[in-house]
Amino acid sequence: MAEHSGSVAFFDIGNTLASVRVSADGTDIESLIAYPDIPPILSALHEKGVRLGILSDRGTIPEERVNAALDRAGLLEKFDQQLVLYGPKNSTLLFEQAAAAAQNAAAQNAGARHRPRLLFVGEDATERSFARLADFLVAPHPSLALTVLGRLAPLRYLRIRVPPAGASGTDWRSLLREQPLVPLYGAVRRAAPPSVEVYAVADAATALKLDDLGFPVDRLGVEDEPLTTDLYLLRDDRQNDSGFGSPAGNAFDLFSDDGSARRVLASSPEGLFVAIPAGRSVESYHFSGARHGHNLKLQATPALLDGRADGAAPSAATPTVAPHDADTLAALDPRLTLAERNLVTENITAQRMSREVERYTGVRPASDTVTIRSRHIHHPDNASAVRTLLADVTSAGSGLLTVRAHQFVHEGRSYDNVEATLAGSGLDGVVLVTAHMDSTGARQPGYRAQVDPAPGADDDGSGVAGVLCAVRAMSALTAEVGVARREIRFVFFNAEEHGLVGSHAYARDQAQLGTDIVAVLQMDMIGYDVLQPREFELHAGFTPSASVQARSVQLAKLIAATASQVAPSLPAPQMYPGSTAGGDPAEERSDHYSFQLHGYRACLVSEDFFIGPGSSAPNPEPNPNYHLPADRTINADYARDIARAVTAAAWISATR
């Protein structure tokens, strides 16, 4: 008899089995592509006697269309049709229905009367918590399904330290890849001696194997904590500013009074590692003095071990992503023709930038029937903003764009990134122009995300307006100058304020599918500028990989070269990392990081928000209304100029 013949494993679809894109009207799946590691995992389960099912929320998509998409992807045949159920997983109901279906199927096939052992595999902690209430075993990632079914030892969060002898080489990655673990985050410190730490989920037995291999392993939290929590990195900027010996940090104030001190699993130079349980939002922990990108949701990141995150060659089992060496962009002629300059400046104006910001902040209606007061993911207007963006990019693209929603799940809810694709004429590689679409007002005392306004004009309505104007400009360039040689995508990421959630889901999808992304140009807060002289920033730093950073720096230099042509009133940008000592204070703090983490060249463009670069740099000019309901206006002339520079650089990247 097979080892697990009495077991049934149910899988979620999106972000667990496959990358999914939905049509703009939400009625069909336009693309469903299985992740490359999924077929062998399903085969291994089948060989052990595990029956396979699906539990997924199809939303407004008809069941037959979901099944057709699974069939095209070669997945449907791997699942027992009696065990494919669709519905919301925001209660125990669907799991109870699945349990009944599994028992009926077992009785029909083998006459068994007892309930089979049931497993739910999904990457959302809230959905896993409902499965647990329905007496399911749960696994946070498909690669841990057999581990959980085997029940050899409970799952733990682990901090795996790479010894100095291994930190200078690459053998440690192959050793970790051989173990049944899911990497979540890597901390690389270049100071002598160099050190590497990997945060991961694995069972306690695997931790013992790592001990034997010579990895110092810290067991974090309690047994089985990864089953119903998400791990976050919360950066305490106030403590970093005050320095060693000062009690000015946030940890005691935020985690002692409500008895949640147990949720803080570890601290490090990067910040606090906090396990947030299902049903509780990271929104509850908005640190005083926090700067941009103060939290990071730690999600399954295979790239940490396949080598792309630090410039090493991917493993043989991983789709190869062509990295394009650092000289690729350096060799491009950054000069725009007169026609190109005119089309960029004519289609990206202060008036249009201001109008788009007003539409997405509630100053004026977004349409005849929609007014957007907040884009916070807990506010109902977030969904209205998604629908409005889908309509806007469709209209602005003049029929040239393929517009889709890229779905992911966070805190038990389904959210969408918005993607619009302008086809290229055959040259390899994809260029991304991006911003995040969500907002927050969480720095306001007593802020209620579900009802209070969060206009987010600067953060990041300014970036949203910049991408929308880039759509118009590049559609006009396509119509009048010619089709770009590379594909161009315009992507609006959701749930950035909750730890880069949407961009991580998107970037991980692209890396696992082997997409050759040549450049990512992220606009995040490009609208606040009051004091003279003008300043703006380009962030390309990425400590884990000198090669990823070098490629990202070349992209930053290209933006600087195009800025002088389409926005001559902008000064030379502040470049991070700069020529003097010091890192990039925006590293890991905006959506560009999600792509660097997967080996892609990416650059963040922002207003003068961060200190530096270097000790002689002028003082920064941070927006005093950051993360407040008072973030309602932008300097449209300033934002226009930055959007022009980014658009021009993206066009050069896609056409030369």
UniProtKB/TrEMBL annotation:
Top-rank lineage group of the source organism: Bacteria
Pfam families per the UniProt record, alphabetical: Peptidase_M28
Name of this protein: Peptidase M28 domain-containing protein
Organism: Streptomyces aurantiogriseus
Entry's Gene Ontology molecular function annotations: metalloexopeptidase activity
Occurrences of domain Peptidase M28 (ranges): 417-641
GO process annotations (BP): proteolysis
InterPro entries tied to this protein: HAD-like_sf, HAD_sf, M28_fam, Peptidase_M28
